[in-house]
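During the reporting period the student researcher (J.K.) took over the structure-prediction task from the postdoctoral fellow and processed the backlog of single-chain submissions. One of the processed entries is reproduced below for the supervisory committee.
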Amino acid sequence: MAQANLAGTKVMVIDDSNTIRRSAEIFLKSSGCEVILAEDGFDALAKIADQHPQVIFVDIMMPRLDGYQTCALIKRNAKFKSTPVIMLSSKDGLFDRARGRMAGSDQYLTKPFTQDTLIEAVNAYVNKE
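J.K. obtained the following structure tokens:
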């Protein structure tokens, strides 16, 4: 069990699935993270500007603004381009991973994720500062 103390770490989860958002929130909160939820890219972009999350998880398949577009927009903003963006997808193809990299993502996690994989991902970025 990757039991990291991530107290106060602001993590955003962007996913159009309420189930995914809720389970990610429960997993992250149990490690002390402060969790910001967004249901799509537009919702997320407004919240990122206000909340300044330290790590962002973004689902790829979303209506209106997909994960690739959302990631690219985050990375294009000078204030947030160094914020780690971790793609979440049920697809685990090479093409999807490459496309995520091209959009500027820092990591790619496949669903269903476990508490350990989420915490390890956050830990990898937060504790290297």
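The committee noted the following: The first strand starts at residue 10 and ends at 14.
J.K. will present the remaining backlog at the next meeting.
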